[in-house]
Design brief:
Structural class: mainly alpha
Strand content: under 5%
CATH superfamily: lambda repressor-like DNA-binding domains
CATH topology: 434 Repressor (Amino-terminal Domain)
Radius of gyration: 19 Å
Largest sheet: none
Number of helices: 6
CATH class: Mainly Alpha
Length: 100
C-alpha cells in the first residue's frame, strides 16, 4: 500500500522524537491507525496526510509524490507530463464529436 510514504512519516516522527501515541494524539489519530500508515498497511487520506506532515514539519509535496508512487502513478505523470494517450482512432474522435 503506502510503504514509501509510511517510511517517510516514520522518519519524520523519529527525527522529532515523538512516539506513535504522542503524534497520533496531537493530530487526532488513533495510535494503531498511525502505526498501520507507517507500516504501509493503511493509506492516509490527503487531509490526514497534511495534518501529519504539517505537525512533523515535513515536505507535503514530497509526501504527495510518495503517496502517488505507492498508488502506482507513473513517474512521468508526477513531472507534469500528460496522462492522455497520444493518438486517438478516427472512430473514437467521431464518437466524441457526436456526443452532446
Amino acid at each position: 500500500m503506502g510503504k514509501r510514504l509510511g517510511t517517510y512519516i516514520q522518519q519524520l516522527r523519529k527525527q522529532r522524537g515523538g512516539s506513535i501515541r504522542q503524534v497520533g494524539h496531537r493530530v487526532g489519530l488513533i495510535p494503531s491507525y498511525l502505526s498501520h500508515i507507517e507500516a504501509g498497511r493503511r493509506e492516509a487520506s490527503i487531509s490526514v496526510l497534511y495534518r501529519l506532515v504539517q505537525h512533523l514539519e515535513g515536505d507535503f509535496t514530497r509526501a504527495l509524490r510518495l503517496l502517488a508512487t505507492d498508488a502506482g502513478v507513473p513517474e512521468e505523470a508526477l513531472h507534469g507530463e500528460s496522462c492522455r494517450p497520444e493518438h486517438h482512432s478516427p472512430a473514437t474522435s467521431a464518437n466524441r464529436a457526436a456526443t452532446p
